[in-house]
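tool=predict chain=A
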Amino acid sequence: MNKDPRRFNVVRNARRILRFLEARRESISPLLILTHDYPDPDSLASAVALQYIAEHFGIVSRVVYGGILGRNENRGMVQILKLPVHKLKHSDLKRYQYTALLDTQPEFENNSFPKNRKATMIIDQHASLGKPSADLTIVDPDCGATCVILARAVLLLKKGVIPSRLAAALAYGILTDTLNLYRAPQGQVIDTYRDIIPFCDLRALARIQNPTRSRRFFGTLAKGIQRAMVRRGLIVSHLGSVENPDVVSQTADFLLTCKGVRYSCCTGRFRGNLHVSLRTAVPGVEAGRILRDIFANRGEAGGHGPIAGGSFKLGDDIAPELWDEMEMAFAESLSKRLRIPKKTEFIYPFRSKN
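tool=predict ok
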């Protein structure tokens, strides 16, 4: 018998969702389901799963996101699985009195939820900055992925058959947020993935995992390698202007695979904001804590386990040299936070000598 207490925490939270929706039903209908501004597979899968569950209890809902769908995989996930997600309109926040936040929280700077409103539901895996206020709050940093909780809730509905596209979305959300189960906590994530995979459209899942990429993506990746600088196990790359913020995290993921690297940090400029992604290969280290420590506003950064990200506004009319100064200052702050000796300097191991 699996006695991992975290597994039962996931089940308990899944049941809390079902009990809440069953008790409220039409009283919170229609419900606006809001992801963070640049939704990843975990966020998207969680949102459409909540919509599916809400529909079971007679609750009409709409899934929205405030930013853009960046990565090819994310756009492919929505297109191939025909997920009912929509770009947030300002009128949505006026039309919908009740809002559920998925994979984010009101205090975070990565969503479009008004600061003067109270959420109806909050379901997230990221550690809170304060005490989130909602009619139902579920924050579980040990669940592995937010969609693990929602997947377990879907399984608990016991409707016999789970729609194959929804199952594929949940499976993909679990895989991406756990590095293909490599970071999965014992029991809970693997059990949920094992239970959801028989319902999946496996062909669609394979198509999502192997997307075609634009030439610009490879150009950005090449730039990330050329600009990468290394200092005592830390690799940093400033990409400059990017087509979408997701390429920053993709480059950080890729650079972490460099031999001898323990921390990987990548930045990118997008719509007047400096977007930052931090990754670590050091077991037990909370990347989110590190990133928040070097952000002026801690609410603009966050993460879970070895993954962290954040952004802060610089402005659209900032001179290029000021961007450069800010990026280098950030790299120095990160080095200091990681206690890398000042006497060491960054080197550029991949810069072309031609």
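The CA atoms of residues 244 and 278 lie 17 Å apart. The longest helix spans residues 5-24.
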